[in-house]
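pasting for ref
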Amino acid sequence: VQLQASGGGLVQAGGSLRLSCVASGVSILFNTMEWYRQAPGKQRELVASITSDGTTTYRDSVKGRFTMSRDNAKRTVYLQMYSLEPEDTGVYLCYRRDRTSDLWGQGTQVTVSS
């Protein structure tokens, strides 16, 4: 049972990345899924979430630049990131919200150079 995140990397400011988070051994069909990020020396913060019916929410600083989506058949959620800024740098983690068994994935590093 795990969430596997991938797609991070080093990009210049203004660039794009697409993160993926694949669930194995567990369904995400009825779960809200979330992306968090954590920068060095800072608290973990919620970046985006998507409910089981596809409703998305974003933190203000990424609205209009990030898009979260899901493919339940593939047990995968995505975070498409455009117009990246140095402030977006951090480890991005996916999270499966569940009443009885929340699940964190390992992170994928995103580094945006100025």
